Amino acid sequence: MTTPVQYLKNVGPQRALLLQKMGLKNVGELLEYFPKRYEDRRSVKCISSLEPNQTETIRGFIGALKEFKPRRNLSITKAWIADGTGSIPAVWFNQPFVKKQLEQGREIMVHGKVDGKYQALELTVQDYEIIGKEDAATGPRILPVYGTTETLPQKIFRKIMSGCVQQYAPRVSENLPGDLLVRHQLMRKAAALQAIHLPESWEEMKAARHRLAFEELLLLQLAILASRHREEKGISHDKDKEIFTSFQKAVPFPFTEAQKRVIGEVFRDMERNKPMARLIQGDVGSGKTVVAAAALYKAVRSGFQGAMMVPTEILARQHGQSLSALFGKLGVEVACLTGSTPGKEREALCEGARTGQIQILVGTHALIQENVRFKNLSLAITDEQHRFGVMQRGKLQKKGVQPDILVMTATPIPRSLALTLYGDLALSVIDTLPPGRKEIKTYAVKYDLEQRIFSFIRKELDQGRQAYMVCPLVEESEQVDLQAAGELFERLARGEFKNYALALLHGKMKSREKDQVMEGFRQGRIQLLISTTVIEVGIHVPNATVMVIRDAERFGLAQLHQLRGRVGRGEHQSYCILMHHGKTVESRKRMEIMESTNDGFAIAEADLKLRGPGDFFGTRQHGLPELKIANIFEDLSLLETVREEAHGLLARDPGLATSPHSLLGSMVQEKFKIFT
């Protein structure tokens, strides 16, 4: 399976480079590059029964051929196909090379869309095969359609894949135990790989997909659940009730019932002698940080240290400042460590953590670096977990001797995804917002109302409030998006907001510059902050009352909800304005959902249904490995079956080290590095 793709039939050095750009370097990776959909070519239509606006397959003989260029950069090739019931022109656009392959009198199979043009029908060709040619498919069948590039057309890719499957799929060894295959009536892996790429029937394709999705989800669940099946003795924290009482006195506001309930659940876990593994879910602004602070205080009062890892430097500093202010009253030493902490300060912080002088250390992924050691870490907290993933959580855990683990997320996660991302964690939900919070009024508007929106923002700024204006930024078009944000800032600073204090914030700025801008906004010196999505997570500015999101159709619902949560944190009425060019039914539906509810869980469910789990957390932000064939939302019942199977396997063989589980164990290890 490690054979380089270059040595496959129909590849060679040039095509090998194109395949490598798609992430396909060897035979094993190519075999697991699954079709995104299929086209059923078994149903061949008679030409006389064709109707407009249908995608059909016809088979007939080539008659007259024509080629013409109506204008520059447009060439049209037409071949009249006849099958005994009628004839129709098949049309190729901008493919002049096609004419050389078409011979009058040859039999051809053509697949494409039937168009009605000037009272006559034409077939716009999507794919074709000359019958009897060496590279033709063997008659009508279900054809796989792959995600390819312009430089590697579908037909050529399909030919490469077909050769690879026929030569190598039968050699793939079985990695699932025999009893499991029998119990769940699963195909063997070699047969499944052949059937997923070259299916004889829909039933065979579905059975192959089921087998491969089962394996993919099983490996993922084994990785996630492995920690639960290790018999580990944890740290038993102090049960003294006075710890909660003195903490409650130090907090300058009353706890909600939901906060009290979740603190109780966390404290009970911490008092047991088994390591805690708990996920706290709470909508934006629900008060998760106070729960985390209570847990950190319990760890310190029990004679240990606590660590809190967050995804961004701005958030690390914000948490560091708020926890320092709170714990200063309680005599607890808090420090903050990030990637940009200067060398001498970093050394001092590392020394303080090692000796135990620093009792609580807040930071970014800098916390999991080699040189950071703790004297006696008993609690590790990760905030916004989906940005870290299972592996980094494990690294933080290894900084102590079986410390308790607390994970917090402001992204309300539907149960199906929670099972997958956090299968090893018990769940707590903070389901009420603090009293006095006003619901954010949300409006979706088109760009023809832009000047009215600017006027509304100026009115809010004149009353002493502040506003955000967010521009989309995606990896695929990062440079263009950055330029657009910069141009908007220049236009507004010189025009509609020339009498106001503006600032621009984007991900390419140095950490110190970002911090200076955010600090200026927090202190009220900056009135309008124009930003790319770097403000999405956790920034707390109670005086900000307006969130304008430009090109809102380019965001997912969960992300829009997160951004909306940056306002509505103070006593004044807040507003979220979604400016959009939405033309599709899906984008209009997203805007309607945002206008109709502030409930994060309802939004998360809708987002998952609309976009699927692959995009749920945005580009590369979640800890979930990219699933190649399983779909968490559609395969929920399969996921639950697989979880039970994973529990059973780990109960019998916690390290997956003995036969017949060792091959499975080595695959989990190779993919997730979980048993080190």
Automatic annotation (TrEMBL):
One Gene Ontology MF term: ATP binding
Q: Which PROSITE patterns match?
A: HELICASE_ATP_BIND_1, HELICASE_CTER
UniProt EC number: 5.6.2.4
What's in the keyword line of the UniProt record?
ATP-binding, DNA damage, DNA recombination, DNA repair, DNA-binding, Helicase, Hydrolase, Isomerase, Nucleotide-binding
Describe the function of this protein.
Plays a critical role in recombination and DNA repair. Helps process Holliday junction intermediates to mature products by catalyzing branch migration. Has replication fork regression activity, unwinds stalled or blocked replication forks to make a HJ that can be resolved. Has a DNA unwinding activity characteristic of a DNA helicase with 3'-5' polarity.
Which reaction is recorded as catalysed by this protein?
ATP + H2O = ADP + phosphate + H(+); Couples ATP hydrolysis with the unwinding of duplex DNA by translocating in the 3'-5' direction
Residues in Helicase ATP-binding domain copies: 269-430
Q: Which organism is it from?
A: Formimonas warabiya
- Can you name this protein? ATP-dependent DNA helicase RecG
The protein's enzyme class: isomerase
Q: Name one Pfam family in it.
A: Helicase_C
